[in-house]
Each structure stands twice: as structure tokens, then as C-alpha cells.
């Protein structure tokens, strides 16, 4: 069944329609400067298609929460959930086919990126049985898929960019149709923008943005000037779901209003100067005094306090240290533990293998300072190697053998995200043990999703690092050509606990 939703009118007064089924297969990119009508366009698209397809809206400004009352979207306040909880929420969203708005307005930019990445990852990683068609609308996409590094950490940027890339590049097979809106094409990562086949280009003024918009629409450079003259709510449409040739359209009216609204001039109140001063300098009758929240101390500050053996830090710092690590008490006369012993204590937590390496490293340093051990001898790079070995399940005795030194040397030249998996496969092949299951490989990758293991094995096979074979009984055998080792047959679907 073909569903055509009406987006507005063309310059000739004819209805401008959008083929919803074609959009699900080809994705959409919306571009326009602030005030050009991007949010209005997205709202029109969401309202018109709400009865036909499930929707998820990544909303950094809280502008789309007003859809809930009229169209039944569930508003998810990201600030009230952890990243892990948002992944589970996203999985249930797909299982129960509920349309949602992920409200990120109460978070700073870096946490917006982390929470959006977790939510998109949850949508992406569900089981095949729940791959129902779904529109995923991302407003201000340049925040989540930046073209260059900014003030946020590399870890947050990579996580967010990876989630957006998965949405636009691999989401179609999982039923996810990405609709992304950005103020400037130059700020948006090219590999994300390049996957869209439908375009709605609004008003823009910079030469580089006009040139890129004209190139995407197949227009001549001299025609790029027209983007400066577009009025608010006017866009140039092109794509298999919109039009085969660049088509000027005007977006129609919407049924709901955003919370931001439009700025309009209003006369100032006629207040005498003396009264105006009292109004702003004195508290009102029902006004409550706001107390500035004391910022939580950074991990570096806590470590410095511990190293200097200063008086006990404030309760906020103590609670933060308690969350990071709770080292067991030792007798004062007991010898200091070695770095390997401290590391084993840190990795004794079952969730440690699934946490970020930098977080586990900070936990390791805190424990070292509590025991009076210089943990800085083991820098972050060396700690990553030890974490990769631990995730691979290699014990200390096997790690000291010449064969394992050769495997470590090969893994050191590989990307960080596949080192642990390569070492796990090397250990199984060296011991002639059964090939690890998808769940075990996912754990070595630091993930709980067995489906990610299949993609990682395909990537390693394409890179020539491994050779994957399936025997007559459906068991998997993996060979490592660089080492000349091969695993025994193993069930790829075996649960991690059983394995």
C-alpha cells in the first residue's frame, strides 16, 4: 500500500506529497539556517505520518513534547534515566511499537550526546522479530554527528557519531528510517549526510552551505544564490520520495505548537526607574531564595586529596569515591598488594568488563592510592592491553608464554575495539578449545548484545585477520592465519553463562 502524506503546496499551488513507504527506504535530510522553518517542517511530517508509522524523535530542545497530548507520543525525560536504562527503554519501544519523544533539554551537550547514543543503540540492537518500520527524527543533527571535534570528549563524540552512522547507514534493514535536520551541512559529518536520498533545503546564507546544497540537488552553481531568497517555511525538495527534479514547496500548517514559539516585539512596561530597581534587587513576596548547588568534585581532585593525605573530603566527595570503588579493608601490617592483585580486585566486579576502559582505569588508580601503591606506573595504554587480555579470559600463566607474546604483538597493531576479541580467539585456538560463542565474543567487546559479535567477526574476516568456517553440524571454526592456530568447533549460539 502506498501512503502519500501532504507536506504543503508547490509554487504552482498543487499539493506537495511525500511517499511514506519510499521514505522508509531512502531517508531524509533537512537543512536550513535557524528560523528557516526546519522544526515546523519536521512537526508537519510527524503529524501527517503519526497514524501510519511508529516514530521516535530525538529532541535536544524539548520542542516536540507537545505532540504527546494530541498524537499519543510518550515523552521520555532523558535526565531521569541512565544510559543503560535508556537502552532498555528503547528496546521496549520497538517491542511494543510505541511512538516516543526523547526529551534532552535538561542535559548539557556531552550528556545529550551520550544519552542519544544509548537510546539509538537500543533501537538498533533489538532482535530481528522487532524490526518494525519506524521513523527516527533527529533535530539539530549536527550536535550528534559533528563534522569535527569540539569541546566534548572524544569518547562522547565517537559514541554519538557511531550511533548516527548506524542509523543512517545500516538502519534501513532494521526498519529504521533516519530523518535528520541540521542548520549547516558543513557542521554535519559527511558519512551521515551522504546516506540520505531525499532532501529538503531551506534558507541559508554562507557560500559553502549554498554550494553544498546546490551540489546535493544537482543544481548549477549559479543557481545556488536562490537559497538566500527563500522565505521561512519554503524549501527545495528532491528525492525519490518527494520529486525527481528540484521542486520549490511551501510547508503547510501544523496542528500543535512548539514550546519555544516565535519572538515578537512587545512594548516595555511603563515602570518608574526607582520602582524598576526595587523590582530586580529585592525578592518578591512568594519568591524562594535559590541556593547554588555545589559542583561535585572531579576525579582528579579526589585523587589529589587522597595522595596528599589531607583531612576527610566533604560528603559529596566521599559519596563519589564510594561509587567509584569500595576497596576491602586490609590490616595495617599486611604487605602492599602488587598491581596485578589490585587489577584482579577491580575486575572482580562482573560489570567491570562492560564498563568504559577509562572509568575502570580511574577505579584502579583510586584503589592503588588507598593501598599506597603507585598505580601510575601502569599507564592507560598498558592498562588497555591488560583489560583486553582480561576480557579475552587469558590467565597470568598463559600470558607469559612466547606464543602469547606473539599474539599480543599482533593485537597491538589492531584497532582497540577488536583487540580483546582477537586475543580471545587466539587463546581458544592455541588451546584447541571450542570456538567462543557470540555471547562470549560480545562480552570481550564490552557489549551484552550477541548480534554485535557477528558484525565484528565479519569485519575481522574482511580484514584478513581470521577465517570463519561452519562445519556440517552447524558449529563454527575460526582460524588465525597470522598465528597458524585454529579453534575446535563450537556452538555460536551458546549462552555466555553456559559456555
From TrEMBL:
Keywords: ATP-binding, Nucleotide-binding. InterPro entries: ATPase_Atu1862_pred, HerA-like, HerA_central, P-loop_NTPase. The keyword Nucleotide-binding applies. This is ATP-binding protein. The lineage of its organism: Bacteria, Pseudomonadati, Pseudomonadota, Alphaproteobacteria, Rhodospirillales. PANTHER family: HELICASE MJ1565-RELATED. Residues 6-108 form the Helicase HerA central domain. One of its GO terms (molecular function) is ATP binding. SUPFAM superfamilies: P-loop containing nucleoside triphosphate hydrolases. It comes from the Bacteria.
